[in-house]
Amino acid sequence: MDMPLPETGVTTTGPTRALAEFVAGLDLDQVDDFARHAARRHLIDTLGAMIAGATQDATLSVEKAFAAAGIGAGAVPMAGVAQRYDALSAAYIGGTAGHGLELDDGYRAGSVHPGGVVVPPALALGAQRHVDGRRFLTAIVAGYEAACRISAASHPRARWRGFHNTGTAGVFAAGSAASVLLGHDADQVENMIGTAASYAAGIFTFLAGGDVKRTHPGHAAREGLLAALLTESGLPGPRGALEFKDGYFNAYAGGDTGEVDYAKIDLLAAGDNHPKSRFAVANCYMKPYASCRHIHAMVDAVLDMAATEGLIAEQVKSVEIGSYRVAATHGGVGWSEMTTAQMSIPFVVATALQRGRVTLADFGEADRQDPAIIDLAGRITTGVDAECDEIYPRKRGAKVSVTRHDGSVLQRTVMEPYGSASKPLSDEGVAEKFLGLAAPRLGQAKAEEALAMLWQVDELADVAPLAEVLAA
């Protein structure tokens, strides 16, 4: 039973309250068919990434750490995971797994990965509380809205302060999804936001190496869920926590500089929308390549040259890439570890040229030491292109020029990479990706059973059986 929150006597009217009222008032009947189908697609895509990532080193490290601390054991299943955990630990493990292989979805305007912070806590709490599929899918839509709008309002100012939106804004997304499942009213959602704001975390130190980036969505998923549960238990939080002077936007996104008056923004209009829907989930992208999304337009460009011009790696003398400033920073990232290799423009583009693909199989230790790829990577340079920088973050463009040994030059401009809402994977492509990621872990029959349930998720009477099918 919910415990009543203390009366604060404070009424807010800013972006925090707008988000709280949206989350509390959302019903699936308000969600258009296009966005509802997008929510199913992104749920499927995220779960595939989680299942495949359940056995990666970072996920296993989290499980070992929980065991060493004596925490985590419970009855809640998590996609791709064999052991059952408490809901908070399951959410952390699921978020880590989903982000770990650079296969998860994203929202360009906010440079954020919403699936990994929304789906794990929703699945964990939904299974524990035996919620129906209709409320579950509503929670997914609400969580995506929070992740995307807060990140879009912050980006790129938060990035230049060193913050990773998935980890920071992710707490509000996880908490919003949980609040829908718990049936919170607007006051409770605003309370959750105020509590979650203290738990926002995640910086870009991962560009120097290590695996901590993998855990950012896990931390956000757990802490956002905890904020919602603390609200259910009666813990009071501050109001207006996104916009007031000591709040989230001032601390993380430069509100203290006076550049933006965050108290006056229309938060639910931040970012951009698909022409067919006002909901953010409808305008998110999926990843066809196992690398940082900032690099995908460049991969599209060289793969198109290979397909249409017969370009092969042996012909390449040099590659010059121009892109927006955020992407160009990845031109100096090395590839000593899988984490950094997936973030490295030279390594990823060289891999695409050398192998005609960018898959999980291309980032192993032997692959990162492949002399042909290393040699080619050394001939790839990256800089800032004024046009690409001007249109970012509205689009994630890149201009690629390849000079061949015979002196001829091939050029491509890709302003919107494959997998975006304007160049989407087909439903068949989403299903193929899911089965390719899930079947090796679950078995083909179980993966197909899960997929069939997911396409009809809003018709399920209880999502707990779905969670069981998704678990290893």
TrEMBL record:
Residue ranges annotated for the MmgE/PrpD C-terminal domain, each copy included: 289-454
Matches recorded under InterPro entries: MmgE/PrpD_sf (IPR036148), MmgE/PrpD_sf_1 (IPR042183), MmgE/PrpD_sf_2 (IPR042188), MmgE_PrpD (IPR005656), MmgE_PrpD_C (IPR045337), MmgE_PrpD_N (IPR045336)
Domain of life: Bacteria
Gene3D superfamilies with a match to the protein in the record: 2-methylcitrate dehydratase PrpD
Coiled coil: none
Every MmgE/PrpD N-terminal domain range: 18-256
Pfam families named in the record: MmgE_PrpD_C, MmgE_PrpD_N
Family the UniProt entry places it in: Belongs to the PrpD family.
Entry-linked PANTHER family: 2-METHYLCITRATE DEHYDRATASE, 2-METHYLCITRATE DEHYDRATASE-RELATED
Name this polypeptide is given: MmgE/PrpD family protein
Organism encoding this protein: Roseomonas alba
